[in-house]
Fold this protein.
Amino acid sequence: MEFLMASLVGILFASALYMMLRRSIVKLVIGLVLLSNAANLLIFTASGLGSGQPPLIPPGADVPVGAVSDPLAQALILTAIVIGFGVLAFAVVLIHRAYEVVGADDMDQMKDTDT
Amino acid sequence: MRMHSLILRTAGHFLLPLLILFSLWLLLRGHNEPGGGFIGGLVAAAAIALYLFTMDLQAARKALWVDPRNLIGIGLTLAVLSAIPGAVLHGQPFFTSQWWPMTLPLLGEVKLSTPLIFDIGVYLVVIGSVLTIVLFLAEAEE
Amino acid sequence: MSHVVALPVLIPLLAGSISLIFWRSHSAQRWIGVIANAALLVASLWLLRETWVHGHLVMHMGNWPAPFGIVLVSDLLAAIMIVLTGITGLATALFSLSSIPREQERFGYYPLLHLLLAGVAGAFLTGDIFNLYVWFEVMLVASFALLILGGERAQMEGAIKYVTLNLLSSALFLTAIGLLYGVAGTLNMADLAVKLAEVPPEQSGLLTVIAMLFMIAFGIKAAAFPLFFWLPASYHTPQVAVSALFAGLLTKVGVYSLFRFFTLIFDQDVAFTHEILLWMAVLTMLSGVLGAAAQYEFRRILSFHSISQIGYMILGLALFTPLALVGGIIYIVHHSIVKASLFQISGLVYRLRGTYELKGLGGLFRSHPWLSILFLIAALSLAGMPPLSGFMAKFIIVRAGLEAGAWVAVFFALLVGLLTLYSMLKIWNEVFWKAGPETQHEVPTRGQSPRLTYYYLPIALFAVMTILLGVAIQPIYEIAERSASQLLDTRGYIEAVLGVQP
């Protein structure tokens, strides 16, 4: 399972970078989405995989019974997803504006600031 | 952004109060159970956006009666202010939770607390920022 | 426990949200901006004093004990950075009073400014790496929005590069956090320092990989070689007050994070990691200054110089001796002041002449001698001429390099100093000394206040500071020296956060 997840993370990173290197700005956005998903999945995998062990404390007890999965990693991912949502919403607005101003969905048209 | 669909318009009208109630329920149960300000705010913002889809931009702005940016400001202020009571009253670190349980007529026992204030702030910020972005994109379309 | 630790974060947050409530009233926002930033400066000086007296200040947010809750920690390095935040914030708020066009205030300039400062202060003070990530994102969102305020084509293009590279850096940062959490099972910096010391040797390779991921992530934020190219593409495009704030403060957050991580957490394999930092520093210095030599636009030259100066700060960290760290810290202070001031001067020149192109400028020494002198002070300080702050900062770093036997780095540090002088003299000749061009550019004053007082005020204050830093270095040197010893001996930090270790 770990191997599978690790491969998936790798594939996600690779496709994210591939998309970011394309000329189209829309594909750049897709690349950014994939990138944040890859990072989140990596946290999920790195914190240990397991199933059927919800980190819940039964009523009346003070500590969970038996082994539970790590809730902190999930909290981290949740936070990262929320932040990613905010940043991405902004990026979409930005790219929409850029598309209007430049008039093309093409990174090669955006060389004004490079020289 | 206007969509001329009778079904959408009718559904939007009916769903809006229901979904707002649902979002408030999510907000209030959030302290101990799944829910909270963020998800409640998203539900509310989605409901309002659905409602606004049936109007053009000016009618939408008018129907909102408050600018979404003000919502962000008020929400953020509430969230930041919720840090202060514990520090001022008891000299504890900022953001230490304060609980004021009380019995109200009709409602029974109610626990007011600074986490609740924080969550309401988050709720308002989320509604405000999602609507700001939606209105901005709609404006850009026109 | 002292509440002053959280004030530098709470003041801008509260100011930002209040100015959002008043977002219709521009004058209210302006004055909230000045008052809140003055309060921030006062709070930061108070924080520095308290930290100087007590060594470390810690606040467990929400009263959750470390390492489970989020802590705010102020050691001397963080306190110095917070003071810089206060200084730059106040200067920017004053400068904005007359330089930001009214129609851009409408798009939330002031709330974004406060949010950015809150993010920066949070990043300096937090003692938790995931919280650091959150502050980075707060900062980034605010800086994205400030960058495109105005919506011109160059701004959009610059912003796309800025956004992409910075999101890549955030993703790498997050990846590194995930891996580190997998290894150590904690996110608290002090706790990490303890846990990583106990990591078995067969896992040390993995630790080095994680350290490199952090280095790349912060290197992008700090605009270090080889991933600096988002900076010259974007820093010359926004409102000049924003440029000054970014160059003075924002890239320093990346440098600060490198300082924090590669003294407190990753000091297991100094020979490897700090050797890489050393070459990164040298190449950053060199590529920045060579890039600047090819430019003929005021703000682009300054942007490229920002990169080369970042190299000196990283060099201070890479040498990893007490004296070098002192030099690095003083360099950060010096550069914040001088670079913000130079950008503000470029804005004033634009205001007077209507262009940033060196070709279209000239004759300012004749018409505005005082401005020319202010520029000369800042420029010579940047190049490292005595008796200004740049000389002291460079002198300490070079001396530390000589003591450490890093001859190549010292050679390049001196060479880059010379080339910086060349660049600054180029601006001096073209903008101030040579005769003015026959055709005058149209000066755009639309929506700006006619008064120039608020342009001159922060620039003059910065000039006084750089002279004072050069002439009376002793107090700052003592603070930096103690800060460096705190960085090298991490026990104080760990004990302050976690309590005395058994």
In short: Residues 53 and 105 of chain A are 47 Å apart (CA to CA). Chain A touches chain C at residues 20, 25, 28, 32, 35-36, 38-40, 42-48, 72-73, 76, 79-80, 83, 86-87, 90-91, 94-95, 97-98, 101-102, 107, 110-114 (CB under 8 Å). Chain A has a mean pLDDT of 85. The first helix of chain A runs from residue 2 to 20.
